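Long-time lurker, finally posting.

We've been working with Gluconate transporter (Planococcus kocurii) and I want a structural starting point before designing mutants. I don't trust myself to interpret raw outputs, so I'm hoping someone here can both generate the structure tokens and explain anything notable. Sequence follows.
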Amino acid sequence: MLFFVIALSVILVVLLTAVFKVHPFLSLLIGAFFMGIASGMPLADVVLNVNEGFGGLMTNIGIVIVAGTIIGVILEKSGAAYRMAEVVLRLIGEKRPQLAMSIIGFIVSIPVFCDSGFIILSSLRKALARRAKVSMASMSVALATGLYATHTLVPPTPGPIAAAGNLGAENYLGTIILIGLVVAIPAAVVGYLWAVKVAAKIEVPDDTLEDGELSYEEVIKSFGKMPSTFKAFLPIVLPLVLIGAGSVAGILGGDGGLTSLLKFLGSPTVALLFGVLAALLLLPKWNEETLSGWIGEGIVGAAPILLITGAGGAFGRVISNSGVADLIAGMDMTALAGGSLFLLIPFIIAAALKTAQGSSTAALVITSTLMAPLLPTLGIEGAVPLALVVMAIGAGAMTVSHVNDSFFWVITQFTGMKVTEAYKAQTMATLLQGVTTIVFTMILWTILV
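Top reply, 14 upvotes:
Generated this for you. Predicted structure of Gluconate transporter:
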């Protein structure tokens, strides 16, 4: 009966978001209260668990999410994202434009949301496609799938961070970042191959040159004075290095001064705040417009993510304390424990949620809250196993992007693709990305766990 109540609460959340278009924050809160009351939890405990679940998750990852969105806004507005794109183009060469766009998307989407990344790089995508004389649809899918790969798998993107927090893996972000970068590579490669083999055959209105359209050189020049390569990459690289060093220090152990310092600097909150400080070097001027306006825009952008993530934490806490953990503990889980087939459970749940309601972040948050009580019972703990569970959830959150996903409409509107063409080019690409990612994650589980 308890599992039936959990299923009903999840269905309620999906119906509210997908059918009635209620904001995921309210949907998750309503689902949390429904779950608590329907499971027979005392009413006072329902309120207590909702409050503690919301606040507990914010304690671990709230500042991290805000810092990540601030970095993303500064990278976008300062021209650093364009500088990174230009560097990648020089390294890869303009003879492989789709590969260049895929790698650009892969890097930019680590701190910047994939929707925003596609928009800010759209003029560069069009100009490079003209110069290389390749299909606009091909370039668009290459960029979109590169963005999508890291968006669902690599912190400090909010979705994977939220999943890590719900699973109790916030102290293993270094491992999650490393494994996420590895797992995202085959996902990006599959997207790139689909772009050059299938999407390249699709013709869109953008393939016709319009009067007054800027060339590649003019687009680069229009960005104005861009920051140096070092300054452009520093806000992304510095936090990743610090988190990685902190993870290594934690594995090696010890209580020495250097170890303690590395653990402090490598804590996600401190590492991302150093990333924000590094991003301040990109500001063209230190004035109210940048120090208050740009940073304020990042904070505003973080608000809905924080609310959705916190509501997901509340939902998860109610589920965890509803008695489901004890129920699971009394069940025979030997068929699932220790095998990579277990990863199909979070993958299927996340894929169903993603397909139904469109948001990858919501799919990551909800699925991780559902999986959290199950993991201790199966003995799944530690950095690598929990990181791979996050990857399995992220794989499901890729599957698939279609008409209820804002990213789908960004791509169609900025490329002129018809919906049927976008289903063939983008939706099928994300399906292949999700399937490839879960297969690769299961292989890694077999090798590493």
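Before you design anything, note these points.
The mean pLDDT is 85.
Residues 288-329 form the longest helix (42 residues).
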